[in-house]
Amino acid sequence: MSRNRTIGLFLLVTLLFGSGFPAVKTGLSFIPPLLFAAARSYLASAVLLVYVGVTTEYWYPRSRRDLTAVFAGGLFLVGGTGIGFVAQQFITAGVAAIIFSLAPIITAVLAWPLLPAERLAGRDYAGVLLGFVGIAVVIRPDPASLLDPELVGKLLFFGALVVVELGAVLIRRSRTSMPIPALTGWMMMLGGTVHIVIAFAVGESIASIQPTPLAVVMVIYLSVFIGVFGLVAYLVLMGEVGPLKANLTTYLTPIVALAIGVVLLGESIQLMTLVGFGIIVAGFVLLESREISAELIKYRSLYR
């Protein structure tokens, strides 16, 4: 892949994923959160399953490993996003994106007991600790106002992130050989069903949906452009440059979300939230310090 194309993919993934948080925030004005998450999941599932049904014979689960991956992804990875949609009713798009930036550190913690080959060691613990210090600064729990809607939203989004990353780790643990688009399509279908069941259980009503043109655009954008094109672009980028560099998009998407939130949604951001984000980034750098050092050595050798 050419350097320009790699940079283009990197920017595309960053812009798509960063715009996802403001898109959710906008859609919540018209659609209840869990029904919104369900609509997004079902539409993305339909697009992906039609695509894999036409392009490959391996478009459905064929083994126990495949089924394990589908259930783990549907119940946790996709199902957990519904909690995130609920949480974004109470927090800004920028704050949601900053909390999401903890994802690689959460993954490392969850992988430690579930994936023996990915044990934490040495400075990894310091990186994880620093990341959690950063998220504590972002959330800033106050015992005197535990029922404050913003605090509840931050805690809910953090919980959603843990559930989502648990799903990602369990999929890796399953060692499925199912093609990613097919796996994602079935996960989206199951996850959408989880959203629907919980939505009706908590009293969300289809009658409360306002099917405005903007609401329809947000569902389509989240489903097709982010859930399908964004995912494919990210997987291509990760295949070309590796997970370490691809994960850097996680730390640029909050900048996009913050910019869109301020300019288009009139949101504001507190200084301490930005400080917490900086600490999370520092934790990631420390956690991945060996890989980062190896990459720097590689680039130095190329230009000698």
Commentary on this structure:
This protein has 304 residues and is mainly α. The chain has one domain (3-302). The chain is 77% helix and 0% strand. It is built from 13 helices and no strands. Helix 2 (33-55) packs across helix 9 (213-241), helix 3 packs antiparallel against helix 7 (149-174) and helix 4 (93-100) runs antiparallel to helix 11 (253-264). The longest helix has 29 residues, at 213-241. The model has no long low-confidence stretch (mean pLDDT 89).
Task: Please write out the topology.
Elements: H1 3-27, H2 33-55, H3 64-87, H4 93-100, H5 103-114, H6 123-139, H7 149-174, H8 180-201, H9 213-241, H10 243-246, H11 253-264, H12 271-287, H13 289-302
Helix pairs in contact: 1-4, 1-9, 1-11, 2-3, 2-8, 2-9, 3-7, 3-8, 4-7, 4-11, 5-7, 6-12
What structural class do helix, strand and pairing data support? mainly alpha
Helix content: over 70%
The N- and C-terminal alpha carbons lie at a distance of 22 Å
Oligomer: single chain
Order of helices and strands: HHHHHHHHHHHHH
Q: In what range is the share of β-strand residues?
A: under 5%
Counting DSSP E segments of at least 2 residues, the number of strands comes to 0
Overall pLDDT? 89
Number of domains: 1
**Main beta sheet strand tally, sense and closure:** none
What is the tally of helical segments?
13
Low-confidence runs of at least 5 consecutive residues:
none
Task: Output the radius of gyration.
Answer: 19 Å
Shape: globular
